[in-house]
Amino acid sequence: MRAAVQHETGRPRLEVRDDVEAVGFGPGKVRLRMRATGLCHSDLSAMNGVLPQLVPFVPGHEGAGEVVEVGEGVTGLQAGDRVLVCWLPPCGGCPACKRGQSQLCLASLMEAGTPNFRMGGENGSGGSGGSGGSGGSDLFGFAGTGTFAEEAVVGAGCAVPIPDDLPYDIAALIGCGVTTGLGAALNTADVAAGSSVAVIGCGGVGICAIQGARAAGAAQIVAVDPVPSRREAALRFGATEAVPPDALADARARVTGGEGFDYAFEVVGTSATARAAYDATRRGGTLCVVGAGAMDDHFQVNMFELFFDEKKILPSLYGGGDVLRSYERAIALWRAGRIDLAGLITHRVPLSGVNDALEQMRTGEALRTCIEI
What we know:
By secondary structure, the protein is an alpha/beta fold. The protein has helices at 41-48, 95-98, 168-174, 177-188, 204-216, 228-236, 248-256, 271-280, 303-309, 323-335, 354-363, and strands spanning 3-5, 15-17, 20-22, 29-38, 57-58, 62-70, 82-85, 117-119, 137-141, 151-155, 159-161, 196-200, 220-224, 241-243, 261-266, 281-289, 312-315, 345-350, 368-372. The longest helix is centred in the middle third of the chain and has 13 residues, at 204-216. It starts with a strand and ends with a strand.
């Protein structure tokens, strides 16, 4: 089958090969035929080493498709079911799950060190950027999944059934970016009606944070991004105004009378933008950190301001709540016309065009590129 492969950390382009096999099928597993996958910034971060990931690997974790076969012991799924991929499924039995913090469950990530693909044959390179690798090599799937492939073998908990009226492309986005952005606003920060909000970073996840804040009833939502097209998009999705980063201080002064925003969302993943969001937050307000950053990038506050300003610093992992409930909420809001998910998809490419999708993300041209498989 065909899949996109990252051979070494730091390579800017993926190699699309046609000699990859999804392996590891057995008890507790399901084999999926992928139909659509979104390109999330976390995939790019894994490629360049910001996020730790064993190599070589198949990127992709935001996908949807159909069940091909189910392994022994799997219940609630059967061949032909339409599903989205949950890259961090709750096990239900660990301390985090029992506390009601299933987004912190690590059970599935513990299996991410087991290869779930294999590439073999020395003549199977598929011509999309990069030299052919040697045959017979194990491949890992990003975050234990790997949706940049025609098929994937994942744990049964990773395959979440979806209703028939939900298109594969939209379902794929719900599997990560939509849930992360909406959840940051609705679960982690719990945005209050009538409040003021700033969102720094207006890619797909940031746009969903904006939509979540709007759904929660925020009165002012200021979108902050250096890319003009993303600022324009933020206005379409519910921001009340959109400014470049160097105009954030002015917006803070105008919108909040200089006090600062009730909520500021950092959706970039750097200490610099986190500090900017912290400074934009009012005393007693909430900074919600959504961006996934590097382990050696340190966010700093001094002990006096931490005490005196009483700003709440809330990281948000995968939407900060029960992901299965978050999926259902996203679908309900989409059906009701309260959020726009189709509009997030600004570009579409086949699997062979995955490197075009990477470039669209790097330049900020795309909110989300759907890779149709």
